[in-house]
Design goal:
Blueprint lengths: L2 E7 L3 H11 L4 E8 L6 H14 L7 E3 L13 H4 L21 H11 L5 E5 L4 H9 L7 E7 L15 H5 L1 H8 L5 E4 L1 H4 L6 H8 L4 H21 L9 H8 L4 E6 L1 E3 L10 E3 L11 E7 L1 H12 L3
Parallel strand pairs: 1-2, 1-4, 2-3, 4-5, 5-6, 6-10
Antiparallel strand pairs: 7-10, 8-9
Length: about 300
C-alpha cells in the first residue's frame, strides 16, 4: 500500500530534486504539493513546483499556493544560493499546468480531516509557515497527522544563515515553534546530517550519464546549486538537503539518529531560529523529535539515481 504524503516546499534546486524523488517512487502517493515563501518569494515557488512536476511528466499533481510571508517576521529569501528564479540552472520552461484555486492551508486542513486518521505524512522542505497556519486554523488536524518529516535546524554544525540558525527555521521561527510544540511525531533532517550528503562531481555526473531529460536537468540543478556551498565550505560539491526527507520515507535504514527534545528560539535576535537540541539529554524536557545525525551517503545517492532514472 502506498504512503500518502503532502509535500510543502519553497523550491529551490534541492526541493526540486526531492519532488522528483517522490514522483519517481511508486511507494508514495503525493496527494498535493503546497508552496510557501522561503528560498524565493511565493510568486516564484509555486511556479517552480509546477515546473518540476511537468519535468517529471506529472502535470496531474495538484499544486497550491500558501503563505506569502512568515507569521511574525519579514520574509528573508536566498537568491544568493538559488539564483533569481530559485531554480536557476536548467532553464525549465514556464509551466502550463494550472495552479489550484484553493489556498494551500485550506487544502492541508481539508485533506487531513477527510483522510483516515494518521494516514497522511507531511513532508516539509521549507519554512513551516503553512503547517503552523493549518494547525492554528483547525487544531483538530493535529492528532490526525501521521508524522511530520522536515528539513531544518542544526546542532553540532551550527547554522547556515546565522551562526546559530539554519535557513528554514530562521525564516519562520514562530511557525517552527508552533509545530515543534504541537505534539505531532517529528523526524528532522538538520544540517548535521545533510552536510554529509555532498553532491560530488562524480555523483552529479551519474545523473548526467542517465542520458534522460530529467537526469540532465537534475545535473544542471545540482551544478548551479552547489557552487555557493563549494565556495563557502571548500568541499567537492555541496550538501543536498531536502531529498533526505523523501529518502527517509523510502529507506529509513540509510539513516541514524536519536529521539530528543528540540526547542525553537524565537525571542533573541542573536540566536533567532536556533534549534536547541538536547542531544545529550541534559534537560528533563519531553522528547519531541527524532533528530537524524548520520546517513549512508552512497546509499542515498544510489536511491536518488535509481528513482530519478525512472522519470
Amino acid at each position: 500500500m502506498s504512503r500518502k504524503i503532502i509535500i510543502d516546499t519553497d523550491p529551490g534546486q534541492d526541493d526540486a530534486v526531492a519532488i522528483l524523488l517522490a514522483l519517481g517512487s511508486p511507494e508514495l502517493e503525493v496527494l498535493g504539493i503546497t508552496a510557501v515563501a522561503g528560498n524565493v518569494p511565493l510568486a516564484l515557488t509555486h511556479v517552480n513546483v509546477r515546473k518540476t512536476c511537468e519535468l517529471a511528466g506529472r502535470p496531474d499533481v495538484p499544486v497550491f499556493a500558501g503563505a506569502i510571508r512568515p507569521l511574525v517576521r519579514e520574509l528573508v529569501t536566498a537568491e544568493y544560493v538559488h539564483g533569481k528564479t530559485g531554480l536557476d540552472g536548467p532553464g525549465l520552461p514556464e509551466p502550463s499546468m494550472p495552479l489550484q484555486e484553493q489556498y494551500a492551508v485550506d487544502f492541508v486542513v481539508e485533506t487531513l480531516m477527510a483522510e483516515p486518521e494518521k494516514t497522511v505524512t507531511l513532508c516539509v522542505l521549507g519554512p513551516l509557515t503553512n503547517i503552523a497556519l493549518a494547525m492554528i486554523r483547525e487544531p483538530q488536524i493535529i492528532p490526525r497527522i501521521a508524522e511530520i518529516v522536515l528539513m531544518g535546524g542544526g546542532c553540532f554544525e551550527g547554522g547556515n544563515t546565522t551562526p546559530a540558525a539554519e535557513f528554514n527555521i530562521y525564516v519562520d521561527p514562530h511557525a517552527a515553534k508552533t509545530v515543534f510544540g504541537a505534539g505531532v511525531p517529528i523526524t528532522m533532517f538538520p544540517l548535521d546530517v545533510t552536510h554529509k550528503a555532498l553532491t560530488t562531481r562524480a555523483r552529479v555526473q551519474r545523473f548526467r550519464d542517465l542520458g534522460t531529460r530529467v537526469g540532465t536537468a537534475t545535473a544542471e540543478l545540482l551544478d548551479f546549486y552547489e557552487r555557493f556551498d563549494e565556495a563557502k565550505y571548500g568541499t567537492d560539491g555541496g550538501p543536498l538537503h531536502d531529498p533526505n526527507v523523501i529518502a527517509w520515507l523510502l529507506k529509513p535504514e540509510l539513516y541514524e539518529g536519536r529521539h530528543i527534545n528540540v526547542e525553537i528560539e524565537a525571542a533573541s535576535e542573536l540566536t533567532m531560529g536556533m534549534t536547541v537540541a538536547d542531544w545529550w539529554g541534559v534537560t528533563d524536557r519531553p522528547k519531541n523529535a527524532f533528530f537524524v545525525r548520520d546517513l549512508d551517503a552512497d546509499g542515498f545517492y544510489n536511491l536518488l539515481l535509481e528513482r530519478i532514472g525512472t522519470l
